[in-house]
Write a structure and sequence with these properties.
Number of domains: 2
Order of helices and strands: HHHEHEHEHEHEHEH
Strand order of the largest sheet: 3-2-1-4-5-6
CATH topology of the largest domain: Rossmann fold
Shape: elongated
Strand content: 5-15%
CATH architecture of the largest domain: 3-Layer(aba) Sandwich
Structural class: alpha/beta
Oligomer: single chain
Mean pLDDT: 78
CATH class of the largest domain: Alpha Beta
Distance between the termini: 88 Å
Length: about 260
Amino acid sequence: MREGGEMGSTKNFMAGVSVIVMLLAFGGYYFSWSEGMTFVDALYYTFLTITTVGSSAIPSDQQGKIVTMLLVVVGMGAVLYVVTGIASALIEMRTNLFLKTIKGGIMKIRNEKDHVLLCGFGTIGRYVSEVLIQEKKKFIVIEKDPTKVASLIERGISVIQGDALDPVILKKANIEKAEVLIAALEDADNMYLIITASELNSNLIVAAKTTDEAAVKRLHKVGAQIVVMPEIVGGKELANAVLQMEKAKGLSTISKKEDST
């Protein structure tokens, strides 16, 4: 079915090009004969006419004006036909490539094992994925947002669009054969996700993020071995950076005093 569509698009495109070539040839010969133009000038005038760019030259007789109007009508249709054909071909090529990428991704997911299952592709999920890519660790993303899913597919990252809390979606991601689950959703969703995932695979290493200090114990209680609060990690990094700068500044001051003595 797809091959027939591609052949049809090619035939339509070639038909449009053929019409344009015939119009150029006709206009070139006609205006070189009727207006005394050189063939190149007549060809140029015809080209400007059928592409609706227009020319300052005006045919000297009524017959020439009628021919010019016919060239405009027929030529404009042929040009639009060709442009539409090119656009359709480009869209079809992009769609086919996108579908092949999706098909390849589905086959890869079905055969995946000992992989990381990353649920949620927000800010935390994005940074986690970058580390996993750097470490060449196999992983599958589960994400609801279709825009994010499309972006991940284009980047060649294995992704399933859907709700990570749905056991059917988790099974599509081969959770039974996964090694690690990273819960990067909201706190309440993370707890439900961990409970559901642990029922499907009791051997999972589970890591979760939270923004609520009170939720740390609850996440550990439902099965998360690792719980991280990005705010605390960021705060410690910021404090360490400031202390390192102060330490470096202090050493620099001491060094200057020693040099002066």
